[in-house]
Amino acid sequence: MFDFRRDSTGDGDLFPSLTGTASHLRVRRGSDVRTVDGAPEDTADSRAEDFIGSAVSELKLRFFLGTLFLLLAMVVGRTVAIQATRGAEYSQRAENNRIRTERVPSERGIIYDRRSRPLTMNVPNFTMLLTPIDLPRTPQARRDLLARLSGIIATPPADIENRLKVRSQAQADPVVVADNLTHDQAVLIAIEAAHTPGLSLSNGLRREYPEGRTVPSLSHVIGYPGRINPREAEILKSRGYGPDDAVGLTGLERTYEQALRGVYGFRRVELDARAELKRSVSEDSGTPGQNLVLAIDLDLQRQAEAALRDGLAKVNRRRGAVVVIDPRDGAIRALVSWPAYDDNSFAQGVKAADLARLNSDPDRPLYPRAVAGQLPAGSTFKLAVGAGAIDSGLVKPTTSFVSSGGLQVGRWFFPDWKAGGHGVTNLTKAIAESVNTYFYTIGGGFGDFAGMGPDMIVSYASRFGMGSKLGIDLPNEQTGLLPTREWKKTAKNEAWYVGDTYNISIGQGGILVTPLQIAAMTSVFANGGTLFQPRVVDTVIKANGQRQRQEPVVISKQVVSAAAISAVRQGMRAAVTVGSARSLADVPVAVAAKTGTAQWHSERLPHAWFTSFAPYDQPELVVTVIIEEGGEGSQAAAPVAKSILNWYFGAAGKPARS
């Protein structure tokens, strides 16, 4: 091993100069010291001199260098492997930290009534967002930030943290922590965001319903949007939805979600090392949502709601519904479910206490009973039974039976509502006076007369739209129930008896219908035999202004024969002139109607039904009313329909709302 050291006579440099004296540099090999020219210098002083380095064996040096080379090779190899296999991924991550894509919500479409009056509005909405990847990394700094934000938005820090944890897989995406902020809150958030990476304030839009407080029954029709839940977010991810997006939850807001939502845009922005915006790289504003024009008339909706509430108050009841349809095309002119609620409370973020109150209310104000309520039909069902008997040829309009107060079958008695009966009765009188005996006979037969039987009754009822969904453009529509032999065997493990047939012949015995189904059936008699699919939306206006009318959909062109339609119509007209609906005889136009009193509980009042159309010769309006536990249809429900018809047609007998 060679060792270099300074000569004590040198000037302190290891190599004084390339031309320096050779004697100034001495070389030691082991204990032998020589000058550069090889002359030995064996002195005691030379053995005592300090060495610059430590003596290392050649074998150890080689081992050390080999190990160092191997480690270096491993590092280089791993780097090359990562670059080859995941280089693109890490490059994209780095790019994402510098360039971010922000989604730009489109403006939600507006909903108008048929006279172009807005039923929805988009109003400014301040939202606080946190981007997890940009928040403070140290636990204490993070706690301090959340504590400050908690004081501004009045939300516990733990709730904010939980909100962030839900979105732990998308660290670079902003998380909505609070919205519907007040102006004062927004100002404080903006000040905090100016020096806090990861905190931002968004000034977006939210829904507002201008008639939500004055005509709350519209809430069941229009509905409201709300924050998407995680399950739906995953399902709708492929359609461009984000985890914090609003989505229609009920009503038209849900049915027409895709049209109202439009197409979201995007904005690519460049951030600096502090995650602060440097510049906007590119932007696509997206496409605004489409507007909807309804068939509903706001004034008629308001009047129908007021009439129903007044009718409920008069009989001291709280639940009911009104359906108003144009029988010429199935357009819904008014749709009232009561009680109702203000959809603004949901659009602004319903409070837990308010939601609990609504859900616990026994009258179920969130329930759209006009389309979802399933109730026994009572005597309104007789219209379908009578039409089926005529259409099948079982009876003629002039066929008569004697009503003496009821039918005795063995030990069972099936009564008329009128003591002593109605005397000789044909279809017209049976409908006008709602004679049970007539419908018992044509439905289940009596003596030598063979009736329709349960299968034929159910078949004709289904032709009129009962027992299935009609397809209205609203969620939560229900089917009702048309009981059969098989149903009774399965549901009750009982055989079917003639008494069951008698019961369903008058709309009892397990028959369940929705108010919408009774209105649709009535429309068939009003328009001469066509069953239309009910619809709420009349026109869709696209972003470019193009108007697309929703054409009427015919479910059945001719449900029953014209003769059957005519016979039932005459009976409905007679109900107003001489029968159970005489209270409507002074409406400015000729009205046809049918009352109904549907028993459903042995200790509670029956449901009150009334269904009608007008004018009789050229119908343009069907009005159907149900008051739950209202008692007699002629006393509780008929006044509600009369109030609506009087308002609509006016004192001169002309349509007030053509």
Plain-language structure description:
Keywords: Cell inner membrane, Cell membrane, Cell shape, Cell wall biogenesis/degradation, Hydrolase, Membrane, Peptidoglycan synthesis, Protease, Transmembrane, Transmembrane helix. Residues 104-277 form the Penicillin-binding protein dimerisation domain. This is Penicillin-binding protein 2. By secondary structure, the chain is of the alpha+beta class. The chain has a domain at 2-48. Helices cover 36% and strands 21% of the residues. It has 23 helices and 26 strands. The protein has a 5-stranded antiparallel beta sheet with strand order 15-14-26-25-24, with helices on both faces. Strands 5-13-21-22 form a 4-stranded mixed beta sheet, with no helix packed on it. Strand 21 (537-541) and strand 22 (547-549) form a beta hairpin. Helix 14 (382-391) packs antiparallel against helix 21 (562-577) and helix 15 (427-433) crosses helix 21. It starts with a strand and ends in a 9-residue tail after the last helix. Mean pLDDT is 87; it is low at 1-39 and 41-54.
